[in-house]
Design brief:
The protein has helices at about 15-20, 25-35, 50-55, 70-75, 115-125, 145-160, 170, 200-205, 210-220, 220-235, and strands at about 40-45, 60-65, 80-85, 100-105, 125-135, 140, 185, 190-195, 240-250. By secondary structure, it is of the alpha/beta class. Strands 1, 2, 3, 4, 5, 6, 7, 8 and 9 form a nine-stranded mixed β-sheet that branches. The relative contact order is 0.17.
């Protein structure tokens, strides 16, 4: 698979991304650490503002977190054992066979996969792991769920739907159709869940690249009208927001003995 030159879909919303994106379940990182032969170095590729990198730092001695977007790296949260770098997915700057684990959270669909997988094979230790994951369209539980979910689905598919880049389809299918040339392991069944107010939800929706693109095209914040529609349905307290998590995990393929 070949890709186009890097397009920074999130540079204009980096601060919102850092403030409003949901965090990944701690169980995922504990599971990956338990299955890593060593815990010396993890590379979090396309780190964004460092959500996964900070969680990895709880389990690995050193984390190198790279992103091709300078704006995202500037908005990342610091930690002593996390090193942030501006770098594309196919040129990490890491030595060969240095990483015990490589992670890609919610970003694989943007990559030139042939080039990234070549870099992953170069950087991984022979017994290292590659873990990639994505979260799809969320659902809301509680209150008038059907009416709330209907309004959110229309916003996603109709209001900002035309502003999603074509790669979004890979998120919706949970990366199931993307090539993954590694010896695949069974992944844990996990989801992300948060109790959010309507203001929390609005901040998240404004962190979407499609929302930013809609506002650039039309000069109108589409989230404002949605929150006005949802206000009488949401109620005064938080509601449970759930994202399904699709995870693919693999090791380097074992070469035949006579190769």
């Amino acid at each position: 698979m070949t890709g186009s030159p890097f397009q920074d879909h999130f540079g204009s919303v980096a601060r919102r991304y850092a403030a409003h994106r949901p965090t990944y379940p701690p169980e995922l990182f504990a599971w990956l650490a338990d299955r890593s032969a060593h815990r010396d170095l993890a590379w979090d590729c396309a780190t964004g503002t460092g959500q996964a990198a900070l969680a990895l730092a709880e389990h690995f001695s050193e984390v190198v977190a790279t992103d091709a977007s300078p704006s995202q790296i500037e908005a990342a949260s610091p930690r002593d054992n996390v090193t942030y770098r501006v770098a594309p997915a196919d040129a990490s700057g890491l030595p060969g066979q240095s990483a015990d684990l490589i992670t890609v959270a919610q970003a694989l669909h943007w990559f030139d996969l042939d080039r990234f997988y070549a870099e992953a094979r170069r950087v991984l230790k022979p017994d290292g792991l590659l873990a990639v994951w994505t979260y799809g369209v969320f659902r809301v539980e509680g209150a008038d769920t059907a009416a709330v979910q209907g309004a959110l689905d229309r916003f996603y598919r109709e209001t900002v739907g035309p502003c999603w880049p074509p790669e979004r389809r890979h998120v919706e299918d949970g990366y199931a159709t993307l090539p993954f040339p590694f010896t695949e392991l069974a992944a844990p069944d996990l989801a992300m869940a948060l109790d959010w107010t309507l203001a929390d939800l609005a901040g998240y929706l404004r962190s979407w690249s499609a929302t930013s693109r809609y506002q650039q095209q039309y000069g109108v914040d589409p989230v404002q009208g949605l929150t006005e529609e949802l206000a009488p349905l949401w109620g005064g307290g938080p509601l449970r927001v759930i994202w399904p998590l699709s995870v693919r995990i693999g090791r380097l393929p074992t070469l035949p003995a006579d190769s």
